[in-house]
């Protein structure tokens, strides 16, 4: 089996309630947990409950939308009326998601055909992100996605889940897909040491793609098979992936010096 929700990264040095730790921290009444086949709340290898929101994104922006084809048609017909409509940007954001490469973030990207209807403050945007609602803000690059987040929450004030960001979630899914493609070819083979070693070598080579592509700083796979599992034809594969995080904040310090 492949544990596709074992991605938790410990954070140190963050004080509860700080800007770094507070966004996305779970609310006591939250009930969006992923469930195992027996109905119980799924847990990762650190014992943290798995958030079912990791595979979805909730999005809402104060925006207007018009298509380039609409503008072209309006110009052809010499139409001078309204050609834009109000939108929350969710459908256009979903289209943007389909264009992202693994590890690529939606953060700070504009969305075609979407433009600002009303400006919102950075505090307002931060409050929406804290509620796990993606939105758009005005920056030097134009009207862009504030942050590419999933609907998942951090496990706690000192623990940041890799599944709260679209980019790291996609890297984890890519790692799982690579591993599954490799190991499925070994179904039906004998669980002899030579076969297990060959599987391990293939996993190491295949997953190294993530490092070569600058998607992760470290990645490894461990094949675990007890004597009982060997008799039953069962084995576990644990993936350890450390994806690169996004740049969230850039602090400027300007100093005036004499010659």
Protein described:
The chain is α+β, with helices and mostly antiparallel strands. 28% of the residues lie in helices and 17% in strands. It is built from 6 helices and 11 strands. It has helices spanning 68-76, 90-99, 122-130, 166-183, 193-212, 227-232, and strands at residues 8-10, 58-59, 63-65, 85-87, 114-116, 133-134, 136-139, 142-145, 159-161, 216-224, 236-243. The strands form 5 sheets. The protein has a 3-stranded antiparallel sheet, with no helix packed on it. It has a two-stranded antiparallel ribbon with strand order 1-9. Strand 7 and strand 8 (142-145) form a beta hairpin. Helix 4 (166-183) runs antiparallel to helix 5. It is elongated. The protein starts with 7 loop residues before the first strand and ends in a 16-residue tail after the last strand. The model is unreliable at 1-25 (pLDDT under 50).
Pick out the low-confidence regions. 1-25
**What fraction strand?**
15-25%
Order of helices and strands: EEEHEHEHEEEEHHEHE
Cα shape: elongated
State mean pLDDT (0 to 100 scale). 78
Query: Cα distance, first to last residue?
Result: 65 Å
Structural classification: alpha+beta
Number of extended strands: 11
If you compute it from the alpha carbons, what radius of gyration comes out, rounded to the nearest whole angstrom? 23 Å
In helices, the fraction of residues equals 25-40%
Number of helices: 6
Physical arrangement of strands within the biggest beta sheet: 4-3-5
Give the biggest beta sheet.
3 strands, antiparallel
């Amino acid at each position: 089996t492949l544990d596709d929700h074992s991605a938790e990264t410990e954070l140190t040095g963050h004080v509860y309630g700080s800007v770094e730790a507070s966004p996305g921290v779970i609310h006591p009444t939250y009930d969006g947990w992923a469930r195992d086949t027996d109905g119980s709340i799924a847990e990762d290898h650190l014992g943290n409950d798995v958030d079912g929101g990791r595979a979805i994104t909730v999005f809402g922006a104060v925006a207007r939308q018009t298509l380039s084809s609409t503008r072209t048609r309006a110009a052809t017909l010499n139409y001078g009326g309204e050609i834009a409509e109000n939108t929350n940007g969710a459908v256009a954001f979903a289209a943007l998601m389909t264009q992202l490469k693994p590890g690529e973030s939606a953060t700070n990207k504009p969305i075609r055909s979407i433009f600002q209807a009303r400006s919102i403050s950075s505090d307002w945007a931060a409050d929406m992100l804290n509620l796990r609602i993606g939105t758009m803000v005005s920056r030097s690059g134009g009207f862009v996605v504030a942050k590419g987040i999933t609907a998942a929450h951090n496990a706690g004030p000192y623990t940041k889940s890799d599944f709260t960001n679209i980019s790291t979630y996609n890297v984890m899914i890519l790692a799982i897909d690579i591993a599954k493609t490799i190991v499925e070819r070994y179904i039906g083979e004998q669980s002899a040491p030579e076969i297990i070693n060959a599987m391990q070598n293939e996993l190491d080579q295949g997953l190294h793609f993530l490092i070569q592509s600058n998607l992760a700083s470290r990645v490894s796979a461990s094949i675990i098979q007890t004597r009982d599992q060997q008799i039953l034809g069962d084995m576990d594969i644990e993936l350890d992936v450390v994806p690169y995080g996004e740049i969230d904040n850039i602090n400027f310090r300007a100093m005036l010096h004499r010659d």
